Amino acid sequence: MAVLDPLQQDTLLYFGSTVLAASNFFVAAGLDYRQWGLIAMVPYSCATVLSFILRRSQMDAAFRTSMRRALAVAVFMLAVLLPLALLVVQRAQATPGVHAQAEVAVIERCGDRVAANQNCYLANPTTAGFGVASASRVLDSKAFVPYLPAMAIFGLPNAAPIPTPLRDARVWMATFSLVVVVSALAISGLGSEARWRIFQVALVLPTGALPMVTGGDDLPVLSLLLLSAVLLNRKRWLPSGLAMGVAVAMKLTAWPVALLFALAMLRNRQGLRSYASGVFAIALPILAAGTLVNPKAFLVNELLFPLGLTAIKSPAQSPLLGQAIFSLLPKYHLQVDAVLVAAGALAMLFIYRLLKPRTLDAVLALAAAGFVVATVLAPATRFGYLIYPANLALWAGIFYSQRPAATPVFDIRDGDGITEDREFLGVLGSD
To answer: Which residues contact 61 (CB under 8 A, 6 or more apart)?
Structure first.
């Protein structure tokens, strides 16, 4: 079967993005989603046409490549930065309507409390958060905070004496994500086409654009996962662990990837020690600070609420298997949670033991599969979590395509008297 060239891929990706943006404009319940769809479908549709024209043109290949990159940057500005700026300003001006998802205000309230030397986590939260209509500091002040302590950093600017639009947590999450993704790609050593495709999926297409404009809490985590993977691929164990440590301290969604990276290195003692040292050096003090102030409050917000075991239910709802089973058995939520968690863990353990992934691309592919399983089985889930497997699967394919045919493995016996082969690409060495 013929493989599509980059411009053909662009045409299809931008066309699919146009359809998704238009769908959000016509059927989305939230005004923030509809506004993004209205604005974004124009640059996506233009990019679809221009990519098709470029593919059919007789222009020089180098010129077409430059045009593709310029087009990606233009789409990022028009489909991401423009609607983000509009929604941030509308929120600051308290324009009627919803201008952000609930997580934005929830993170800001967490930052407000931390800035006031208070615990981020409420002992008795009473709401799950609402769509954000203004910049009021009272909004969602009694909501659950299902994020780990490091996420509070994006809410801290809300307590600063700066212009209202700059206090919006999305501004800082978007800036952080953009800087980390660009930095990761700059040091990745990957080919130009691979770097641009990662940038495109992470930030330009709806996989990145929609969450960045309306919410954005998953993008900093994804950007750090990319940085950690790139540093592993560059044989930098400790810096990779440090990047992963920040992600682990932000959101539970980073934990499966962190664990899979560690499992893949079990027989490389020196590398595992360096990586784990980086993770623990960052994550442990941050998590301890957030947990020890009020362990019960932390447990309620971080475990019971996401598992649907509180009176207030999570707004993360999608008609997937776990959610359906959870809804059908309202009297057995704890038992259902236990079965779903056990089923997911056993499924991943079976796949891991069967495949025993040792290359970075194989580990990323397994992580992508794990996120699909978790999204389907989770009692409180949403389709938006699929941005994790979408990005991880892309990275897996790219790292696979750019490593030598002779596949090296992670499980080198460091310290066991066996000489290491360090002359390979895509495999981790010591710092």
So the answer is: none
How far apart (Å, rounded) are the C-alpha atoms in residues 50 and 131?
36
Residue 352's nearest CA partner among 338, 363, 344, 339 is 363
CB 129 within 8 A of CB 140: yes
CB 361 within 8 A of CB 400: yes
**376 class by beta-carbon count within 10 Å (0-12 exposed, 13-18 middle, 19+ buried):** middle
Q: What span, in angstroms and rounded, lies between the C-alpha atoms of 363 and 293?
A: 36
d(C-alpha 292, C-alpha 385), whole Å: 29
Cα angle for residues 41, 45, 47 (degrees, 5° grid): 120
CA dihedral 69, 75, 81, 86 (to 10 degrees): 160
pLDDT in tens, 125-134: 999 888 899 9
Distance (Å) of CA 380 to CA 66, 119, 126, 347: 43, 25, 18, 19
Query: Tell me, what amino acid is at 3?
Result: V
pLDDT in tens, 314-338: 666 666 666 666 666 666 667 777 7
